[in-house]
UniProtKB/TrEMBL annotation:
Organism in which the protein naturally occurs: Luteimonas marina
TM spans (from-to): none
Full protein name: FAD-binding oxidoreductase
Stretches of the chain forming a coiled coil according to its record: none
Gene3D superfamilies: D-Amino Acid Oxidase, subunit A, domain 2, FAD/NAD(P)-binding domain
GO terms assigned for molecular function: oxidoreductase activity
A GO cellular-component term linked to this record: cytoplasm
PANTHER family: FAD-DEPENDENT OXIDOREDUCTASE DOMAIN-CONTAINING PROTEIN 1, SARCOSINE DEHYDROGENASE-RELATED
Sequence ranges assigned to domain FAD dependent oxidoreductase in this UniProt record: 4-347
Keywords: Oxidoreductase
Cited InterPro entries: FAD-dep_OxRdtase (IPR006076), FAD/NAD-bd_sf (IPR036188)
Length: 374
């Protein structure tokens, strides 16, 4: 059987591609792991943050809101994907100018971000040390995002439209002929007219196997920890806190504090594990920014966030390999832009213009096309 679309990877990029394309033809998704979304998708900080990223990413984020807020019925969910959670930005003395610049830019784009007094920030998150920062801002319109439900829901909806999701299918060989693409994965052979590269940290490797353009994508390790606060102050209602520039961020989650030092360590594609030094550094930053005495790190993990040189997603047709399409380089944005990129890849592969709700936000396909990187 020849499918219309073969998607390599079943993380968030692959799930979004499957969701969008399953309305336009037959699909098979190949995932090398025994669990879809095993790598970065399952290791996210789970936040919808409209101000995050460069302008094109913000456009995709904002264009995704209505979908995420509605939690469409075809996802098969029993609860909402989004729950409100403000974000507080704090700045030490040497970062106050950067905070003011961030707020000015966000407000110019109509985002509900405003400067607040440091005392107000401390009243909202009482564990903050007043002497750690000299300026603060608050962003409303941010939300906790149920990553697992979104990911599973998109794959569930694709399956309901007869998409095949095949696990433990590691790609071994890719070839192109007049009829399309032939992919051998774990001893099985698959045929498709279009090949979608949604392989995350392995996307460059997949492109090389297919003879596609040599687009450089850099996997960067990000470390996360979960801290049990014990008898120390804690509230599930606190906002997320970010030291401007992502040098530290933390938020309450599942009765604990989830925190990261915002590390971006170049790392080869792999089942990445947290580095002890990054874990210790995160604990140190958290203790310096708050009154917490971290007695126990309940859990620690790491994921690979994959970026192109300009830190924009890579979505669209390869300039060299016919019917080879990129859905990669989503960086730390893939979860919150998933609905928009599902619509974008579906429009591209069905010969349609950029969807109106994306164009209305100022997105141009040229902003994310692979050809810009050559």
């Amino acid at each position: 059987m020849t499918h219309d679309f073969l998607i390599v990877g079943a993380g968030m990029a692959g799930a979004a591609a499957a969701y969008g394309l399953s309305r336009h033809g037959s699909i098979v998704v190949l995932e090398m792991e025994a669990q879809a979304g095993y790598h970065t998708t399952g290791r996210s900080a789970a936040i919808y943050l409209p101000s995050y990223g460069p302008p094109s990413v913000r456009a995709l984020t904002q264009a995704s809101f209505d979908f995420l807020d509605a939690s469409p019925a075809d996802l098969g969910l029993e609860h909402r994907l989004l729950e409100p959670r403000d974000v507080l930005y704090i700045a030490p003395n040497d970062r106050v100018g950067a905070l003011h610049a961030f707020v000015a830019e966000a407000r110019a784009q109509g985002m509900p971000v405003e400067m607040i007094e440091p005392e107000v920030a401390c009243s909202r998150v009482p564990v903050l040390r007043p002497d750690y920062f000299h300026a603060a801002a608050c962003e409303q319109g941010a939300y906790d995002l149920d990553v697992a439900s979104l990911h599973r829901g998109m794959l569930r909806a694709a399956r309901a439209r007869d998409a095949r999701i095949i696990l433990d299918a590691s790609v071994e060989h890719i070839a192109r002929d007049a009829g399309g693409w032939t992919v051998v994965a774990s001893g099985q052979t698959f045929h498709a007219r279009h090949l979608v590269n949604a392989a995350g940290a392995w996307a460059t490797h997949v492109a090389r196997m297919a003879g596609a353009s040599p687009i450089r994508l850099d996997p960067l390790r990000r470390t996360m920890i979960s801290v049990d606060t014990g008898e120390q102050p804690f509230s599930a209602e606190w906002p997320m806190v970010e030291a401007i520039g992502e040098s530290l961020y933390f938020k309450p989650e599942s009765g604990r504090i989830l925190a990261s030092c915002g590390d971006e360590t170049p790392w080869p594609p792999s089942d990445v594990q947290p580095d002890d030094m990054d874990v210790a550094f995160t604990v140190d930053l958290l203790e310096r920014a708050t009154i917490y005495d971290v007695r126990r790190v309940s859990a620690q993990w790491a994921g690979l966030r994959v970026f192109a040189a300009d830190r924009l997603p890579v979505i669209g047709a390869d300039p060299v390999a016919p019917d080879f399409h990129w859905m990669a380089g989503l960086g730390g944005y893939g979860i919150q832009i998933a609905p928009a990129i599902a619509d974008l890849i579906a429009a591209q592969l069905s010969g349609q213009d950029t969807p109106a709700h994306l164009a209305a936000r100022g997105l141009k396909s040229a902003d994310v096309t692979p050809g810009r990187l050559l």
